[in-house]
Amino acid sequence: MATFKSLGLNSKLLHSIEKLGFETPTEVQVKVIPLLLDSTTDLIALAQTGTGKTAAFGFPLLQLINTKSKNTQGLILSPTRELCLQITNDLSVYAQNQKSINIVAIYGGANIFEQAKRIKRGSQIVVATPGRLKDMIRRRFVNISKIKYCVLDEADEMLNMGFYEDIKDILKSTPKEKNSWLFSATMPSEVSFIARKFMSKPREVYIGKINTSSKNIIHQYYVVSRNERYLALRSVISLNKDIFGCVFCRTKIDTQKVSEKLINDGYKAAAIHGDLSQNQRDAVMQSFRKKKIQLLIATDVAARGIDVDDITHIINYRLPDEIETYTHRSGRTGRARKQGVSIIFATKSEEKKIRLIEKKLNINVPRQEMPSYEVILNSKIGSWINEILKTPINSNLKSYLPGVIKSFINIDKELLIELMLSKEFEKYDLNLHDKNSDDQANNKKNNYDRFFINIGARDQYDWQTLKDFLSSYLKIDKNDIFQVEVMKNFSFFSIKKIHTALVLKSFENVVMDNRKVSVELTKKSKTFSFNSSQKKKKSIKKRRFK
Ligand code: AMP
Question: Ligand 1 mean position to 281 CA, how many Å?
Answer without folding.
Answer: 24
